[in-house]
Each structure stands twice: as C-alpha cells, then as structure tokens.
Amino acid sequence: MNGHRSEADAPTSLVVTFPVDRPLITDAGGTVSPLTVAYQTYGTLNADRSNAILVCHALTGDQHVANVHPVTGKPGWWRAMVGPGKPIDTDRFFVICSNVVGGCLGSTGPASINPATSKVFGLDLPVITIRDMVRAQSMLIDHLGIDTLFCVAGGSMGGMQVLQWAALYPDRVFSAMPIATGARHSSQNIAFHEVGRQAIMADPDWRAGRYLDEGTRPEKGLSVARMAAHITYLSDQALHAKFGRKLQDRAAPTFSFDADFQIESYLRYQGRSFVERFDANSYLYMTRAMDYFDLAADYGGSLAQAFKGTRTRFCVASFTSDWLFPTSASRAIVHALNAGSASVSFVEIETDKGHDAFLLDIPDLLATSHGFITAMARARGLA
Amino acid sequence: MNGHRSEADAPTSLVVTFPVDRPLITDAGGTVSPLTVAYQTYGTLNADRSNAILVCHALTGDQHVANVHPVTGKPGWWRAMVGPGKPIDTDRFFVICSNVVGGCLGSTGPASINPATSKVFGLDLPVITIRDMVRAQSMLIDHLGIDTLFCVAGGSMGGMQVLQWAALYPDRVFSAMPIATGARHSSQNIAFHEVGRQAIMADPDWRAGRYLDEGTRPEKGLSVARMAAHITYLSDQALHAKFGRKLQDRAAPTFSFDADFQIESYLRYQGRSFVERFDANSYLYMTRAMDYFDLAADYGGSLAQAFKGTRTRFCVASFTSDWLFPTSASRAIVHALNAGSASVSFVEIETDKGHDAFLLDIPDLLATSHGFITAMARARGLA
What we know:
Two copies of one chain form a homodimer. The first copy, chain A, contains twelve helices and 14 strands. Chain A has helices spanning 3-9, 130-143, 157-168, 187-202, 211-214, 219-233, 236-242, 262-277, 280-292, 303-306, 327-339, 363-380, and strands spanning 14-17, 24-25, 31-32, 36-42, 52-56, 82-83, 88-89, 94-98, 113-114, 119-120, 149-155, 173-179, 313-319, 343-349. The N and C termini of chain A lie far apart (48 Å). In chain A, 59% of the residues are buried.
C-alpha cells in the first residue's frame, strides 16, 4: 500500500527475530512471540565490545538515525548528533538504534503480520510500555554480544527509554543522556495524546483498528492527530518568529476556510506528510506507552529509589522553550539522582525552538553532548 | 433535532430582526439580510439611558450570561460577574448580551434558515469578522435607543469585541473591560483553531457543511475540536493539581485505549457535552473570526492609532497562567493605550486556572472589576 506499509514487514534494516521460546512478556501480561526487532548500526564494535552507544527514538521516530530514510528519502532524524565527527561519533563508537516494539518500521507492531492468524495484528497486539520497549532492546543488545552499553541516549520518548534502561539495567549502562524528557507523563501531555487518539478513532476509515485488513487508512484522523501534536513540539515564540500572521501566497485574506495563513498551510503539510510514513495504530500504541510511563510508580513512588546506588553517569538536558517537557521535568530527574549521590550534570539550554530542539543543530546541545561523551570515553578507557 | 438546533431559529431570548433595507454588510463583502440578533437583558435602563453595560461573549459562549441556559439547564456563563450585587450589578445597571452574528443561539448564523433559499445557511453565510459582530451589536444598541454604553466588557473573543467597539465607536463607549484577550490572534492560536476546523471538516458527517440539510451532524469531529481547544483554556498546573495521573474509577491501569486516566474521562465528557449545545459550522465561523482579528492591521499597523484620542476609560486584566492570551498580549494593548495617553488601568492576576479564569469566581478579578465599575459609575454621575 504505502511505503511505510511494506517497511512494517520487510524493513530496509537489519532484523533479528527471536525464537518462540524467547518471547517478550509485556507489562500488560501479554506475550509477543516471535518478537522481531529491526535496527540500524553505524561504526564498528571494538574488540572489547565496550564502545556501543544505544540511541532510543522518539514517538514518531525510528531506527533511521543517520541514514537516508527508506520511505521519505530524507536524511536521518539525528544527523546533527550522530555521524563521523559528530558528538556521537560513528568513527569512534558503534551506534545502534532499533525500532521500538509497537513501532511500524519493522519491529513487531500493530501493522505487523500476526503469525498466529496470518493477519495484521491491529489492536490484538498487547499494549506496550516503555519498559517493554527497553526489554526488547536488551534482547537485541544480548544478541549483538554486548554486555555493557557505553552510553544510552535519546530525547523525548527516547529519553524515557534512557531513564528506564538506567533503572532496569543499571550495570549495563555506563553513561546516559536523557534529553528533553521526564520521568512521567504529565496530565496535560496525556490530554494532548488523548485528543490525537480520539481523532484517529473518530475516523470511520479506522475500522476499529482493522483498517489494513479492510483496505482503508484513517489518514484524516491521523493527520489531525499529528497537527495537534506538532504544535506542542514547537514554541509560541518560534511560531511567531517563523510564521507570525503572514499569509500564504496571497496579498489579502480570502475570508474563507482555506489555508490563508502560512501556519495553516504548514500544519496541513505536516499532517499530510506524516500519514505517508506512519501507521495510525502505532501512533495509538506509542502515545499510550508514554502516557503510562511513571518511573517512580514502579519504585514505591520514589524516583530516587529507581536510581538508588546507580553507578551510571548522567547528563540531563532541557530547553527553555520546551513546554511539553519543561525544565521542571528534567530538574525532577536531577533531584532524584542527586538524592542518591549519582554522578549527574545538568544543562538547561536557551533556545526558542521548543521541544523539537533536541532534533536540531543547536550548538549548545551538541557541545554539551560532545563534552559529556568525550569525558565518559576517557573514564571508560576508550582511546 | 437537538436543543441547540431549535434555539438557532426559535431562540429562548429577545429577538430583533432588522428590516431588509438595514442589512449587515460584512468585511468579506457579503450581505446578511435580514439580520436577526437574539439577546438577553438584565436590570433596568435608567431615564438617561446612561447605565447600559454590553457584555460580549466568547467563542463558545452565548447571550445567556446570567440566566439558566435553555439547552443545558445550567446557570449563566458569567454568573460570577453579572447579577444582583455582583461587580456588573444588575440592580444598578442595564446589562445586555447578544448572541454574536455567526453564532448558533438565535442570531443569524450558519445554522439559521437562509430566507433566500428557505434552507439552512451552512457555509453560504459570509465569513464573519469581529468587526461584523460589533456592527451587528451596534444595530441592536441603536434599536434599544441607547447612544452611549456605560461599559463594554468581555473576555477572550469577548475582549476582542470590547477592543473593536472602543476603536470603531469611541464616542459610544464610556468605559471598557477587555479581559484575557489580545489585539490580534497569535500564530499558535491560529494553529490550534486550524486543528479544530480540520477535525470538523474531516468528519464525513460534516457533508461539506450541509449536514443539517442532510440530517447528519459531525459530532465526533466537533468533539475532537472541543477537546483540543479545552486543553488550551486550562493550565498545566491546574491539570496537574486537579487530575495529575489519577486513574478513573479503577485501581490499576487497564493497559488499553479506554479512558484510564481521569483527565481522559474529563476531556471526553467536555467533547460530548459541547456537541449538545453547539453547531459545528458556527465553530468554524467563530474560530475564523478570531484568526482574522488584528486590530492594528486596520490602522496602518499601529495599535496606538486604533485608540488615538480615545476618551474611553480602560481596565485591562490578564492571568498569570493563561497561555492562550498571555499577559504579554494584554501589555501590548496597555502600551498602545499609554502611547495615546488614554486612561487605562492594568492588572495581572495570579491564578493557576489558565485562560478560563475569566469565567470563574476569582476574587482578584471580581474585586478589580467591582472597583473599576464603581469608579466609572461615579465618573459618569450614576448614583
């Protein structure tokens, strides 16, 4: 059907399918078996297997961190951060990124074929949590013969996975970079996700989740969901600076419901292009995983307890104009780490780019990351 | 069909229909003829006709300021502000509120019958601007035999009308209270409106705007639009305080797409109840009117010019946690008024209630309003 549809079952990636006796048992009590994980790697694993960096992707991201995307033909989503000579330097490190379980670019997700029925999973896939994503990643890391990751890094939902990795497998994470994230999803963030889900489920082409079997796609609903979410990734200041009240290709308002304003035209484009590369059910699963994320809740309500005794070194970063994961959410992480005397550096970066700043060429972010990774490499004894 | 449907043509309100030789010529170059305005009044007009206060309603408001709503059965939307002994004291003042043109509670709007075709207007109604709303109100004020309004007051879109009244009819406005508003709609605000419109227009039951003729209603789309907008009326702090991550009637998450969280259940309720009382096309018209509002643009780009030489006394109020119309938007109004040496007092009120604070029983808002109106009444020579 669409490019992303074939990527769900025959991805342009490395793929590992685990034997049926190694299923993923999910937090929801479900079983994913066999579990397939699609992933990309960059650089070379050293003889000690000590130079591996795991990159965790965000809600609508995927494993194509630093290569041309097989569906969109666009460069990788973290090209500012990952590549030769970049802060996550593929000349020095072995970089891994896997599509999360529940995703739609080759790892087992709602758009995958369910081997039990030979039909698309749809909503028959168990609901996935951030911890389930991390468990699946740990199986991949085992498969690659890596014991300890030199670093786990990611922004937004990727940052949630970084925190979950550090809590779940403290001895396997030498250093961690959670960026523009939080240890739990806020009420307002759940609210925005719920709007997106309702938009998708309101689309009659969603067909109670069975649209792929029935040959439809809830493109309008998914597009509206993306438009609403996209606003939260930017900032009022950035929108004002970039678009203001400028009109799109016209000298005067048309007094109609056309896209008179550039911001409208831009948002509609964001919606249209998103549906080309993403699966609507995957969007439901990803947003739900974020909603359920509350790391402290797994440790008796104490975030400090989640990181108790950790030897992982942390670098936490936030952005001044990020209102989805504001600096206060990062500070809560830092306070919890401080409470356990963990090694942590924290930087709040001044920018008007909003939440999406973690994806962009923000010099302060890149310098911070470069500095942290260089220092960690020295501490780890990497040349 | 629904309660609101009959209110569109046979409102539970006072109604004036102007003769066809007194049409409303809109900014878009359209003609609304005959123009019908539905309105409520409270209190008694004094012999001098000098004690009239015009209240202007917000996007989803209506003329039922201080009486039981004919569709919902709930008390009026500004009962905290308007009534006997309230800041806008109906024992002292003659209070008027009309449904805006383009609305759906009895004034000519897209849900009204088009006399030219005997069918529902739908999108055949010209796009309406804030200035069109104010022109229609001025026709009502003429009809009531009132020359000068003692005060014009309103919040949000109502505040836009207050500013437009002061700019368009400076000699007819003795005092003005624009609350939680701005002199233009921001890029981010246009973006949120566009999401709502796209949600409505994506609903197949919208039928290109002809749903009332065709016996359908885009309830799902309108509900999603309301949910998205509703988040912007609150604040992150208020949502955290009220809902946090609390679950709805259950002890543990269900790991599903049900409304596990209270915030989800609350939002869904907001969507459902809104569609009972509001017309989807009216929602398109109201949001569009706000998008197009840019008072300075009508005065060569200078907001100060809009108020040049004004003798109207202003009281401008904003709320610390309002991110839809932040204090900076109110300050821009105050600066423009100061530039022309206008009489203006300004208060930023500390509250976590967000934009919707203007509707609520916020003591600082009520005290400020009471103080301003009392002082203005003295200045006007009202006993």
